Amino acid sequence: MFSKKKKKPLISPPSNFEHRVHTGFDKREGKFVGLPLQWASLVGNNQILKSTNRPLPLVDPSEITPTEILDLKTIVRGDHRSSSVPALSRPVSANPLTQPVHNGVVLPKTSNVARSNSLRSMSPPKIRRDLRNQPNIPPSVPEESPPVPPAPQQYPTLRREQSNYALNKPVSDSPVEWSHSHEATVRPVTEINDNQLAAMTYQNIQNANGPYQHNHPQPQMVQGLQHGLNGNNNVGDTHPNTVRHQQPGPLVTPHVPITESKHELRLTHEQFRAALRLVVSEGDPRETLTGFIKIGRGSTGVVCAATDTRTRRRVAVKMMNLTNQHRRELLFNEVVIMRDYPHPNIVETHASYLVGDELWVVMEYMAGASLTQIVTHARMDPEQIATVCKQCLKALAFLHSQGVIHRDIKTDSILMTEDGRVKLSDFGFCAQVSQELPKRKSLVGTPYWMSPEVVLRLPYGPEVDIWSLGIMLIEMVDGEPPFFNEPPLQAMRRIRDMPPPRPRGAARCPADLLSFLECALVRDPAQRHSAARLLHHPFLRRAGPPALLVPLMPRPE
Ligand SMILES: Nc1ncnc2c1ncn2[C@@H]1O[C@H](COP(=O)(O)OP(=O)(O)OP(=O)(O)O)[C@@H](O)[C@H]1O
Predict the structure, then answer these.
(1) Dihedral sign from CA coordinates of 240, 242, 248, 251
(2) Which PANTHER family does UniProt cross-reference here (predicted)?
(3) Where are the beta strands (DSSP E) in 281-336?
(4) Numbered residues of the known binding site for ATP
């Protein structure tokens, strides 16, 4: 009868915006300039990529899985003998109550903050909601960002409606309670943001009286990426959201006596350093370590081999500068994950320290090789591939049973001892899920190894590691992952739109290897086999002892 006249929404102009990222295209050089490192890696013109010829992992800084307030729990600092301030502890128990969830993966009932993967997410989780009224930012609740629209051709893509991953939990910042004793009462959370760290540190860190700064998250970069995935490669260049508009997010930390309670907080360097000090060991490793030799460089810092003069043991030391991290909160992962999840197939952490402005993680020295070195220099036979897969799957089955998702499985993350034992490393990007928070949403991973659900921005779980393991298997057959000759963004489009990839060398692969691969590279995560299930696949009967891998090790020069 009557046509409803739509009222034109009144949109105010942005206020208080800060222009902190300025990107452009240098026609002479033929490359983008001014991109943050992680985004540069995505469009394929960053220096680290060039120097190591390996793609960098990508962490979308604006997409943080919201945190949840869980039950109150008392945690005690692991080593509190000599400490004058309370600190986060190692986990009280390694195996919380568990119940099966879908697809055979068993998740812990709650995440454990002390395991503090957890501390990784200090960026404000609410920004998209806060920015909803701004131009160019579509409403996105409960999802944090729009899915990639289906491409014109179509291999049936996953859609949100197809997955049962409804996010039924409200977004909430999680206050952390803190008491002035060796026992700290905290609400375990799955991720902690700057507000929560501020809450902890405000009351506990002496001399940390500098002003809190507002955090400036970067939601527009997601739009830029989305734009790129939709066919425009000029990420950050032509998309309207390249200018950042500052809009402070809400703060829900009743225990922090700060007047500007509506503002997101960002820890000062000293506060962050003090927070990190709470989880590292005391002492100066330079007093006991000697003979440093640089053996590698990653996106977070350098790795040196050294000798522990007390034990005469060879160790590897990962040194990460606090001041030049893309997301400094990820450093907490480096400290706690390998330490808190000991397993024969996970690189062992001995200790970690703050040395000036650097975080040093001292770990077992893996003198053999990385799997990348092997796949790029040798051809592996099916028995050797099965041996590697089996050892990796043991680590993954263990981690997944604890609710830990690695999120960056690739040959670069697999290190070997000289006698052929295979261990998982590089836990900088991992995340924890639990029954309360069974799915993650952040865009994290290295493009070529990303699962369809991650590319599609669907909530995801531990199954993403199984997809990446499948891609890693293709690396073992072909020497590189699928689409490796294409820019990362194009590779992500192909992952989004195409059937699961097969190795180029499929013709020389036995049927059981291909069948194993088909169980791992399933587009629908609910149908993908879990690590525990894959361990029973007939292909793994080919697996042999670690010695089978020794002939693959590069010969010392
Ligand atoms: N425990 C270790 N023993 C021997 N070599 C190691 C050890 N840990 C790391 N490395 C080597 O040091 C180099 C850098 O490692 P690092 O973990 O910093 O970087 P990465 O693998 O590129 O990861 P990311 O960039 O995600 O931090 C790699 O070549 C790796 O093989």
Answers:
(1) positive
(2) PROTEIN KINASE DOMAIN-CONTAINING PROTEIN (PTHR45832:SF8), SERINE/THREONINE-PROTEIN KINASE SAMKA-RELATED-RELATED (PTHR45832)
(3) 289-297, 301-308, 313-321
(4) 318
Q: Which DSSP string do the residues of 352-388 spell out, in sequence order?
A: EEEETTEEEEEEE---SEEHHHHHHHSPPPHHHHHHH
Q: Measured at the alpha carbon of residue 329, what is the angle toward residues 318 and 364, in degrees to the nearest 5?
A: 25
pLDDT of residue 8: 82
**What per-residue confidence (pLDDT) applies to 122?**
32
Q: How far is the CA of 240 from the centre of ligand 1 (A)?
A: 37
Cβ–ligand 1 distance for 297 under 6 Å, the answer: yes
Nearest atom in ligand 1 to the alpha carbon of residue 298 is 19
pLDDT of residue 217: 24
Count of beta carbons in the 10 Å neighbourhood of residue 73:
15
Using only C-alpha atoms, the chain has a radius of gyration, in whole angstroms, of 23
pLDDT at residue 9, as a whole number: 81
C-alpha distances out from residue 517 to 321, 378, 474, 500, Å: 39, 20, 8, 10
Query: ipTM of the assembly?
Result: 0.97
Separation of 300 CA from ligand 1 center, angstroms? 10
The token pair at 118 is: 């957890």
Query: 3-state SS of 10-47?
Result: CCCCCCCCCCCCCCEEECCCCEEECCCHHHHHHHCCCH
Residue type, 430: C
**Quick one: tokens of 223?**
């739009």
Token pair for 240: 């309207």
Annotated active-site residue in 194, 308, 408, 412: 408
What residue owns the CA closest to ligand 1's atom 4?
366
Segment 371-406, tens digit of pLDDT = 999 999 999 999 999 999 999 999 999 999 999 999
Which residues lie below 8 Å from residue 150, measured CB to CB, with a gap of 6+? 157, 159
Q: How far is the CA of 307 from the centre of ligand 1 (A)?
A: 17
426 Cβ below 6 A of ligand 1: yes
pLDDT < 70 positions in the chain: 1-4, 20-21, 27-31, 36-53, 60-265, 557
173 is catalytic: no
Question: Does the CB atom of residue 124 touch ligand 1 within 6 A?
Answer: no
Atom of ligand 1 nearest to the CA of 413: 21
Rounded Cα gap, residues 301 and 122, in angstroms: 20
Q: What is the pLDDT of residues 149-178, one digit of tens each?
A: 333 333 333 433 332 222 222 222 222 222
pLDDT of residue 104: 58
Q: Which atom of ligand 1 is nearest to the CA of 426?
A: 17
Cα–Cα distance for residue pair 168/68, rounded to 1 Å: 12
Q: Which of 412, 418, 422, 446 to mutate to test the pocket of ligand 1 (most atoms within 8 A of CB)?
A: 412
Q: Which residues contact 505 (CB under 8 A, 6 or more apart)?
A: 477, 478
